[in-house]
Amino acid sequence: MTWTTIGEYIEALSRIPTGINDATNGGHSALRIWAMGERAFEHAAADEISVMGRTLEEGVRAGRIGLTAATTSSPST
Fold this sequence. Notes:
Layout: H1 6-14, E1 25-27, H2 28-36, H3 46-62, E2 66-68
Parallel strand pairs: 1-2
């Protein structure tokens, strides 16, 4: 793996010759785990919510098309 951010991922994809289109969403649970670590299944603090918002915005600016979310009451992987 040569990437850790969505921008790096999209750049890595652009170097692979493909015949398909790719659209990437960010997963809510993955975003929580990125921002909160082991606390991802607990209530998020304001600073953690800010980290999630900034990370999501960075992803959209890099080319991600949106956010996916489950309909359960707690995030899961």
